[in-house]
Amino acid sequence: MTELPARRLLLVHAHPDDESINNGATMARYAAEGAQVTLVTCTRGEEGEVIPPALAHLAPDREDRLGEHRVGELAAAMKELGVTDHRFLGGPGRFRDSGMMGAPQNRREGAFWSTDVDDAAPYLVEVIRSVRPQVLVTYDPDGGYGHPDHIQAHRVAMRAAELAAEPAFRRDLGNPHQIAKIYWNRVPRTVAEEGFARLRAAGTFPAVGSPDDVPGVVDDSLVTAEIDGTAHVERKAAAMRAHATQIVVEGEFFALSNHLGQPIFTTEFYQLVRGESGAPAGERECDLFAGVAS
Ligand SMILES: [Zn+2]
């Protein structure tokens, strides 16, 4: 068996770009500290809207080559974050982007949303049993904001975590492994409000979103961990910029294809939903591995 780094973090995301927006600073921090950081992206994001006019020909209703292009954007982003282990669930193109909720693409053959959770989860079980992460990060049951691929990524991640630990499940996929801690991506409402106030004052984007446009915004009291990414925010911004078909970065702000400005969060927030907090009662953890025996 090859020797694994002492600390191992697994992140499960729906599309290329979600990892950099949500967890870019966290990923850069742990990679810089020598932890194993493994990203599993469930689809290639084939249904995304293309921002740069020069690349509009890649769109699904034209050449339908956006998926291949975004594989390259993701690789460039991971280089910025110092993350070398990034994979697509079942391999690139195994599951297709399902489009927004209610779109006909939801039900297309091979769409991630139309795939049975138990058909997709074994691909992730295999990753979990080989990487043996102590920490898993994914979305909440609503996928943070209701996108079908984000909801499905949550379901597959939670199901795979359960199946990976079951001794009787598919021993051909590796030895059972119990993930010590599972977190969902969060943004405290006050932090989101403060970020939008800063953006409005800066006037960087003519149109500005609202906290409700930010996935995972919740009441501050639900947030149990915060990772200070101050030292890594430049890497996060560079990784976001690498997703050029999807994101425009301006200083400490960004916009998606809806052109609504949003703040880039320097500190990233989480809610612990499985396992024990390593922080004193009532305090937020500042390390996702807190309390984990390595
Ligand atoms: Zn996404």
Automatic annotation (TrEMBL):
Main enzyme class: hydrolase
Positions contributing to Zn(2+) binding: 15, 18, 150
Leader sequence segment: none
Reactions that this protein is recorded to catalyse: 1D-myo-inositol 2-acetamido-2-deoxy-alpha-D-glucopyranoside + H2O = 1D-myo-inositol 2-amino-2-deoxy-alpha-D-glucopyranoside + acetate
Cofactor note: Binds 1 zinc ion per subunit.
Keywords in alphabetical order: Hydrolase, Metal-binding, Zinc
InterPro entries noted in UniProt: GlcNAc_PI_deacetylase-related, LmbE-like_dom_sf, Mycothiol_biosynthesis_MshB
Taxonomic superkingdom: Bacteria
SUPFAM superfamilies from the UniProt entry: LmbE-like
Cofactor: Zn(2+)
EC number(s) reported in the record: 3.5.1.103
A Pfam family it matches: PIG-L
Molecular function via GO: N-acetylglucosaminylinositol deacetylase activity
Family indicated by similarity: Belongs to the MshB deacetylase family.
Function per UniProt: Catalyzes the deacetylation of 1D-myo-inositol 2-acetamido-2-deoxy-alpha-D-glucopyranoside (GlcNAc-Ins) in the mycothiol biosynthesis pathway.
Protein's UniProt name: 1D-myo-inositol 2-acetamido-2-deoxy-alpha-D-glucopyranoside deacetylase
Protein species of origin: Streptomyces ficellus
Source species taxonomy: Bacteria, Bacillati, Actinomycetota, Actinomycetes, Kitasatosporales
Gene: mshB
